Amino acid sequence: MVNNLGWWGKVNIGIIGAGSTGLLLAASLAKSNHKITMYVRRKTQQRKLQHNGVHLRPNGMTSKVDSQMHNELGLQDLYIICVKQPVLQKNVEGWINQIPRDKPILFLQNGMSHVDVIADFEQPIFVGVLDHGAKRVDDYTVEHTGIGEIRVGIIRKDDEALAKRVVLQLHEERFPIIFEENTLHIMKRKLIVNAVINPLTAMFNVRNGRILENAHLKALAKQLCYEACLALDMDFETHWIYVKQVAKKTESNSSSMREDVKQNQQTEVEAITGYLLQLTDQELPYNSFIYHGVQSLSIESWNQSD
Q: Which residue has the higher pLDDT, 114 or 6?
């Protein structure tokens, strides 16, 4: 796809979604002097971001950003969509209709259920995997709980040159953004981690590290990993080691799915575990159980809040 973006230096970036990921991106990219506009769903959050900027812990840095409502997208050089899967499914068509066809969009989501949908959009489409740890404190404050990187890949070969250019513009040693040649591999690897840690910690209401410290949870985690690798045709031994590394690295973190259950929010279990169950005709008994378990938890949480 032809794209005539004349970028050099500062990039005008629109970030759709101001949860932990969106706030972390805004703070980190604003520090590199890129112009950041955040698009949010709630007027209260929009006003707070406009007034306070984004506050990053633990270093105490505050970055000035613009903020607008998510149904009023302006013109940016690059759009980063980092809402959770249920919100993406409800709103993505409306956002796509507001974004010019020559402007690139980077999608940062858990799961892979969105990939086939976004592949048909006319804009240059990038997909990314973020392995930083981040916790949203309030509407304009985020705590950076684990330093990692963002890996960016493509779905269509035509978008490769532009994706590499975007990565080159955004990459900083303190906040690495890397182009990934094997997009499918990194997405599958992240999905395996999400399919083990997220639903298990949500169902048993534990922090990430407990799936290694509790022998029974570790046994369940291993089976979930085995089945995920089976469904995705990935090597089990390699990815079980990787899952354990991620759980150890994020041992004091609370997974996003656990937080969703605690806050009576819709989880991403459909886009993660549900995706695996639909992907294969093979029996995945542990994933089937954890899928229905998390869905049941969500229903009971909603009932108790009525």
A: 114
Q: Verify that 169 and 48 share a domain, yes or no.
A: yes
Choice between 179 and 2, residue whose per-residue pLDDT is larger: 179
Q: Is the pLDDT of residue 2 over 50?
A: no
Range of the domain at 127: 12-181
Per-residue model confidence (pLDDT) at position 303: 67
Same domain (yes/no): 170, 236: no
Q: Which of 48, 84, 188, 190 is catalytic?
A: 190
Q: Which residues have CB under 8 Å from 62's CB, separation 6+? A: 52, 53, 54, 55, 56
**183 in Cβ contact with 127 (< 8 Å):** yes
- The answer to whether residue 239 sits within a structural domain is yes
Task: Give domain status of residue 3, yes or no.
Answer: no
The whole-model pTM stands at 0.90
- Catalytic site includes residue 10: no
- Domain boundary (142, 160, 181) is at 181
Output the average pLDDT for the chain. Answer: 93
How far is Cα 197 from Cα 209, in angstroms, rounded to an integer? Answer: 9
Over residues 242-246, the mean pLDDT reads: 96
Beta bridge partners of residue 40, listed in sequence order:
69
> In this predicted model, what pLDDT tens digit does every residue of 265-284 receive, in sequence order?
999 999 999 999 999 999 99
Give the span between the Cα atoms of 191 and 88, in whole angstroms.
17
Using the 3D structure, point to which of 181, 214, 244 is the last residue of a domain. 181
217 in a structural domain: yes
